[in-house]
Amino acid sequence: MRKYFYALLIIILYATSTTTASNSGDTLDPPKWLVSLWTPQQGVLLTWQMPPKAIRTAVFRMREGDDSYEVLSQGELGYFMDKGVTEGIYLYKLQAFDSKNNSSSFSDERYVIVESIGEPKDCSSPPIWSESFATAKRVLLRWEDNCDVQRRGFNLYKKVKGEDKDYKLFKSVTEPNFIDKDVVEGQTISYKVCSLDVNLQEIACSEEMSVKISVGTAQLPENIPDFIVRKTVLVKYLKLPDNQEFISPTDIKVDTVGKIYVADTGSGLIHIFTYKGVYERSIGRVKKDDGTSDKFENLLGIDVDRKGFIYAVDAYKGELKVFNQKGVIILKVALKTALQKRPEYNFKKFGLVDVAVDIVNNVIYIVDNFNNHVYKLNRTGELLEVLFNKGQKPEQVHLPTFIYVDKKQDILLSDTMNQRITVYDQNAEPKMVFGRVGNVLGTFVRPKGIASDPKGDIFVADSYTNSIQVFSPEGEFKYILGGKKFGQLDIVTPNGIFIDKKNKIYVVEKLINRIQIRQLTDQTKKINK
After folding, report:
1. How many CB atoms lie within 10 A of CB 241?
2. What is the CA radius of gyration of the chain?
């Protein structure tokens, strides 16, 4: 359900711009892709921006290996949930129609990988409450499922002291977490959660958990372990000029003089801000001699080196572009061409998600999420090595996302679908692995952005649990980032993160199109029973 909410939120954010913009000439523009993702419980979520004058969109789908597309849906909304998928790779495209039934050209193709999760099985282990806690406005509920098979879902029950005699079914959810916003200050609320088998029958229920909704403070239920929260203070939200909005931003970096760079996927631009967070300019579209422009199809990860050169990857094109400060492309590398001398890597598709530069050793690392590799190039763009393969061993990866090179030139990689962080040496040999799948502190669901601070502590953003956890250089959990009153940090789907020399953390919130800068303080608080 949460992903439906995000899809609707994106549509609302774009409603004003898409209905008031004027279309050039009589040509109807094709729809523009926003977010597409697959979840085992719900299917493939597709979201897009409706073009001006369009009143409906047709969704087309083709499975890789097939010869033609089929029409899936036609509707007025900018999202669609495709539940009719099995394991494989699916390609989607869109076409818009106006009130006179004139059609646009087709959108770019968008591919989505659907993985096999096997047949669901039953398991009688009850859910166990984890790090859930309450504030004056909401209760964040999280529980850990110790069963090693995929649940069909959970029933969440609720009872308010003084109002309810018995528990009432409050919500049925597919994931082991929920945010209850239907709370009132002063209430004492009890919850229990029951797991569902393959026939949607309840098979095991948790113990009761009670919380009191206090005024302006965070309180933890009594049956969870102690943990430490580090206080952060909001510095500012980055803003674009002329009431423009970020469109599905993904990554952020800060250079040696404090300039801030934001990869904005929806616009295909890299927005540059001064060290004070004031918008300066945007780069990414370069006019060519024939009058056309060289632009990104799907800009994702970026990095900036000490000389101010900006590195960016175009996901599905499989390209690396390097810009100077004037926005001129000084290097372009097509991975398909670079891999021609290696027939075992004759890829037809790419999914480049991030790039990191090791200026000391003069190498560039590029993460290919689709093919489960990391490419190692020299600074002139020559391919040196293809690192890693798909798997669960420390030297293997499964849909990796963000990569970071620390001051020791160690390579930190978010191995997202293995739910872990792996630290490699300069020879790409594993030095350390930490994290596992789970909903308790020190574990991950969807680890994404990764960075380290001046002391070498490792910060990891989890886009699913909406949290940033911090680990020691040895991979031991230290604390979680909190807000100004040590409550839950107000972030949604964090992706790219960065920590500068002054201990400011920069966070990209992809699905709500927000960039925030927070100051890390030295204040910590032990939240205990």
Report:
1. 10
2. 23
